Amino acid sequence: MRIAVFCSSSPTIADKYLDLATDLGVAIGSRRWDLISGGGHISMMGAVARGVRSGGGKTIGVIPQMLVDIEFADHDSHELHVVTSMRERKAMIEDFSDAFIALPGGPGTLEELFEIWVGRFLKFHNKPVVILDPFGVYAPLQDLLDHLEKEGFVKPGQRELLQWCTNVEEALSHCV
Hints:
The protein has a single domain (about 1-175), classed as Rossmann fold (3-Layer(aba) Sandwich). Strands 4-3-2-1-5-6-7 form a seven-stranded parallel sheet, sandwiched between helices. α1 (about 15-30) packs parallel to α2 (about 45-55). By secondary structure, the chain is an alpha/beta fold. The chain has seven helices and seven strands; from the N terminus they run βαβαβαβαβαβαβα. The longest helix is centred in the N-terminal third of the chain and has 16 residues, at about 15-30. It is globular and about 45 Å long. The chain is about 45% helix and about 20% strand. The protein has helices spanning about 15-30, 45-55, 65-70, 85-95, 105-120, 140-150, 170-175, and strands spanning about 1-5, 35, 60-65, 80-85, 100, 130, 160-165. GO terms for molecular function: hydrolase activity, hydrolyzing N-glycosyl compounds. Pfam families: Lysine_decarbox (PF03641). InterPro entries: LOG (IPR005269), LOG_fam (IPR031100).
């Protein structure tokens, strides 16, 4: 099983988010599942990868050359695929992965989450899409999606393709 994790690479977030990423990584690794990541070594992205490796799992990173050039790459990854663009990165992550988990994050995380969710709705893939949010970071997003659905912008059945979870075990149970 290969799990893609979308999450923050911000160095300015609270430690509780790094701990969450580490806990998720350890749980993935202890199952001997692989992590597919954006290939970075900082913040939550690095924490989840280190957690996977400490739990006995394999890490596969996909990173654009531009980010490698600014020393962002996780060179401890078992595999590190260097690509030319963010679009190529996202396509490779989607192809490599069996399921997707979004942790708290900013615009990049949301962009990845929305793209993979829309791809599932349009039947470009049939892989699980999970949001792991024990701290309620995405509660306003849930409210927005409720509003968009009420206004007719979110189609029937679209919301049900997202699994919202508050703990690691529940999130991983939705991946199989």
